[in-house]
Amino acid sequence: MNTGVCSGDIMILAGNSHPTLAQLIADRLGVRLGACVVYQKTDKETMVEIQESVRSRTVYILQTGSKDVNNSIMELLVMAYACKTSSARNIIGVIPYLPYSKQSKMRKRGCIVSKLLAKMMCKAGLTHIITMDLHQKEIQGFFDCPVDNLRASPFLLNYIREQIPDYRNAVIVAKDPASCKRATSYAERLRLGIAVIHGEAKTPDDEDDVDADDGRTSPPPEPPARHQGRLHSSVSMSGEVDPSRIMTAGVTGVPMQAAKEKPPISVVGDVGGRIAIMVDDMIDDVRSFVAAAEMLKERGAYKIYVLATHGLLSADAPRLIEESAIDEVVVTNTVPHDVQKIHCHKIKTVDVSILLAEAIRRLHNKESLSYLFRNITTED
């Protein structure tokens, strides 16, 4: 693949979130990283010093989500605004893992944080976004600028074909029903079967705030007896109510729905004597993956793999993986995880820098990015 670009009016800047990936991309493009210093003052304020002229140039800022997520975001915003105020022609954010992408839906009295982040990025000066495997693809609609959501599935599929012996005896596993579409997409291209893990243990997030005395648990007052069960009445031309057209709901107030109860965990599909390959877009808190692996082991799977694009692997994830029934965890290098790999030999990394570099090259040369999405479904 030809990834050479003319470095005349292109500049690649990198924050502190993932310098290794930034250098890999720059090397594949045949350009050097721009001179830029990003640091924190003694009072933790973010400082950015761009040591080259960016006037009328196209600037690519490489920054990804990391453990220090809020500082990574602030670095990106300050770098973009510094380029904007220095008269850069285009400012393109290359964000392999977009932070806060899980907070893309309204929950209780919270807010849609990913939309807030999108507004901040556009306001800071970003004119285009290149990212990879958004947690929810609808997040692209939050941005007031174009968003190219690349897919890592071709790299993970290639890993399965080349690095998993006897992968023809494997079954693709969806960790939960929400992952069925992704698992089906993988299974169809590998021509394998699929299994679904259904049910899970109840978590503290599922419990209602029953102690809150703000009216959320108080039922509405019951209507008078003559109005109970009446939804509406039809009045004739003479002003009299037609009893035959009165509809009843069969309840005396606002209907109360039964609380959702999660069924006990079970496996739908045959995994006995097979290789089980769980696929997801990210792996952060690994407890659900560990519980799923134990269930698969009990059902007869003799080897268990976990494949995901973003390997956040927070908290004590390396230890839990090391002690679990999981044989191998495969993630891409969209997020730095070198420390986690030191503590867990089961973690493997797939390099996707060539995909990001090719996206930058095509965008810079005003070429179509359709080739990068060839034979890739929307379910990935």
Walkthrough of the structure:
The protein has 380 residues and is an alpha/beta fold. It is 26% helix and 21% strand. The chain has helices at residues 19-29, 69-85, 113-124, 153-163, 180-190, 287-298, 317-323, 338-343, 353-364, and strands spanning 10-14, 36-40, 46-50, 58-62, 90-95, 128-132, 147-150, 170-174, 193-198, 230-232, 247-248, 266-268, 275-283, 303-311, 328-332, 347-350. Strands 12-9-8-13-14-15-16 form a seven-stranded mixed beta sheet, with helices on both faces. It has a five-stranded parallel beta sheet with strand order 1-4-5-6-7, with helices on both faces. The radius of gyration is 26 Å and the shape is globular. The protein starts with 9 loop residues before the first strand and ends in a 16-residue tail after the last helix.
SSE topology string: EHEEEHEHEEHEHEEEEEHEHEHEH
Q: N- to C-terminal separation?
A: 23 Å
Q: Roughly how many Å is the radius of gyration? A: 26 Å
By DSSP, the count of extended strands is: 16
Strand order of the largest sheet: 12-9-8-13-14-15-16
Helix content: 25-40%
Largest sheet: 7 strands, mixed
Principal-axis shape equals globular
Count of alpha and pi helical runs:
9
Strand content: 15-25%
Mean pLDDT value = 88
Low-confidence stretches: 203-210
The computed structural class is alpha/beta
Blueprint (SSEs and pairs):
Layout: E1 10-14, H1 19-29, E2 36-40, E3 46-50, E4 58-62, H2 69-85, E5 90-95, H3 113-124, E6 128-132, E7 147-150, H4 153-163, E8 170-174, H5 180-190, E9 193-198, E10 230-232, E11 247-248, E12 266-268, E13 275-283, H6 287-298, E14 303-311, H7 317-323, E15 328-332, H8 338-343, E16 347-350, H9 353-364
Parallel strand pairs: 1-4, 4-5, 5-6, 6-7, 8-9, 8-13, 13-14, 14-15, 15-16
Antiparallel strand pairs: 2-3, 9-12, 10-11
Helix pairs in contact: 1-9, 2-3
